[in-house]
Design goal:
The complex is a heterodimer of chains A (246) and B (98). Chain A has 246 residues and is α/β, with parallel strands linked by helices. Chain A is built from eight helices and 13 strands. In chain B, helix 2 runs antiparallel to helix 3. Chain B starts with a helix and ends with a strand. Chain B has 98 residues and is of the alpha+beta class. The chains are: A alpha/beta (246), B alpha+beta (98).
Chain lengths: 246, 98
């Protein structure tokens, strides 16, 4: 069994120093790794990123993160990434990482993702260049997530998690106004997850959404936005196929 | 509600007050997003002549800033707020995903 702690949308700023560290210090007792589902800052400034980094530095469990739209607002995502990496965080954008937990290889494929909406109510790659680029941006992110998941399978990972900021499904948006769903996620992410395969999909972004959902292909989805889970993080216990067969 | 026409209905003598409330709510949301908070998770909606502001924010200071901005932007309008600070405790159990 692998215990996966996850939270997104912690939106840290200068007034957040020390808010989450007491809870994060309990991680070794209850989790094997921590996933961060983006929107770690409010505006994506280096100053805010340093607050997040300080909150995470030296944690005795691996920390894997994707950035969110807020982390891009100051248009310095590379700097935010570097500051987090300096604190030991594995920041993923269209790539995967392997975490060894008690002899089990867990793969995490991460991508921020983007919007576009869900089947039957989605944006198309048509018309003005900006509109086409909107959809293409999401498609590139989904394609990268798909490739990363496949590569993790090739590396022999017994369990794989898709970590995004934007949602792959509408299920976990329930509670948000339906009119803004196209800005909260895209079915392209779910299609990537279903075709490449995963054991769990974790995302944030939808503060008024719902924790539980599922892709059309049966992959469980969890919205771990902090306002949704109402905790510093949630923990999910995953089992390998061999363990389940016992 | 009765005071809402005064501020923004320049030269529109008989503009319906309800329209002005809607635009003021839109301006409030713009301010919350673009000013110091970068706050997109607070919802403000017109309900039965009042504005209801709800959401979860990351800190006590953020909550105070949201409420101050609401007061400034919606002066004269009946406002109900339910803005809470995100909880930061550890979970007391895990979800098993067999």
């Amino acid at each position: 069994m692998i215990r996966v702690a996850a939270v997104g949308d912690i939106h840290m700023g200068p007034d957040s120093r020390g808010l989450l560290r007491p809870a994060f210090d309990t991680l070794p007792d209850c989790a094997d790794l921590l996933l961060l589902a983006g929107d770690l800052t409010r505006h994506g400034t280096p100053e805010e990123a340093r607050v997040v980094a300080q909150e995470l530095r030296g944690l005795p469990v691996p920390v894997v993160a994707v950035l969110g739209n807020h982390d891009h607002h100051d248009e310095q995502p590379e700097k935010v990434t570097a500051i987090l990496q300096d604190a030991g965080v594995r920041v993923l954008e269209g790539e995967g990482t392997v975490v060894e937990c008690d002899g089990t290889r867990l793969g995490v494929a991460g991508a921020k993702g983007f919007g576009g909406g869900f089947v039957g109510r989605s944006a198309g790659e048509f018309g003005e260049p900006l509109m086409k680029e909107f959809v293409r941006y999401t498609r590139r992110s989904a394609d990268a997530l798909h490739t990363a998941l496949e590569e993790l399978a090739d590396k022999g990972c017994e369990l794989r998690i898709a970590l995004t900021h934007f949602s792959p499904v509408a299920d976990t948006l329930a509670g948000e106004p339906p009119e803004i769903y196209p800005f909260l996620g895209s079915y392209l992410l779910a299609e990537a997850i279903d075709t490449a395969g995963a054991d769990l999909s974790v995302h944030g972004h939808a503060h008024a959404g719902t924790e539980h959902g599922m892709t059309a292909g049966g992959v469980r989805v969890r919205n771990v936005a902090q306002p949704v889970i109402r905790r510093a993080f949630n923990v999910y216990q995953l089992h390998t196929a061999e363990l389940l067969a016992e | 509600m009765s005071e809402t026409g005064a501020g923004r209905a320049h030269g529109v003598g008989h503009a319906p007050a309800a329209e002005n409330v809607e635009y003021r709510v839109a301006h409030l949301r713009d301010r919350l997003a673009t000013e110091e908070l970068g706050e997109l998770g607070v919802r403000a909606e017109v309900r039965a002549g009042s504005v209801v502001v709800t959401g979860t924010v990351p800190s006590t200071q953020c909550r105070e800033t949201v409420l101050r901005t609401v007061r400034e932007e919606l002066t004269g309008i009946s406002v109900h707020t339910d803005v809470v600070v995100a909880e930061t405790t550890s979970p007391d159990h895990a979800e098993d995903l067999p």
